[in-house]
Fold:
Amino acid sequence: MSTLSVATAVGWRMLHNNFTNLSLLLPGLVFPLFFFTAFAGGLSRVNDVPGFQFPVGYTAFQFVFVLLQSAAFAGVFTGFGIVRDFETGFARRLMIAVPDRRGILLGYALGALGRWTVTATVLTIVAVVAGMEVGGSGVDIFALYALAVFVNACGLLWAAGIAMRLRTMQAAPLMQLPIFLSLFFAPVFVPVELLADWLELIARLNPVTLLLEAGRSLIAGAPEHVGYAFAAVVALVGAFSVWALRGLRSAEAAGGG
Structure:
């Protein structure tokens, strides 16, 4: 089998499992919608805080965060599926059958992207129905979603590296916690300038802050630091690709499980 055909088969299997199993489907849909409703609705008065200036309103401000968060966690949740494949023995059989195992990793990446695409579509529809204002052009919005696609790849590659090294569901906290902390030590609720001193320092050192600020500038129609954001996220994808491929080598050395 060619690498592409392996990737297509693995990606299709991941999507089939996700969309036919409510325990896999619902968390990826419910969590982003819950966060969006809680943050954009429950904290909407933040829009009146002195110093908060975002031209298209607080709903759009929070939408960008939840969009990137959903992209990252769609990748992480796919990592759980990788672990299940090892625990059931499917991954071992797959590795025996496939000469170029990189296609397996690519297939998981396609599955993570397909999973997030559905979540992003539902989230976008809900945001528009809720009255979200969009100031960016079609090109700006395309760039915003492209940025989220790279974030999705980062989440998947990080989780895949953990899953293929440890091959047990006990690794789930290790997959989630670094992603969770990197997201929530970014300027989630207010711009970075309004954070407390120590939080502002951490946020400015956090690469997620750059991605958030670029994404928010895109939805507002005033792009800033977009090139730097894409350079940063591409570098992260490259680093996490090495991490995931080394995890794949570790799984191969262990006989696939």
Q: What stands out?
A: The CA atoms of residues 47 and 58 lie 6 Å apart. The chain has ten helices and no strands. The radius of gyration is 19 Å.
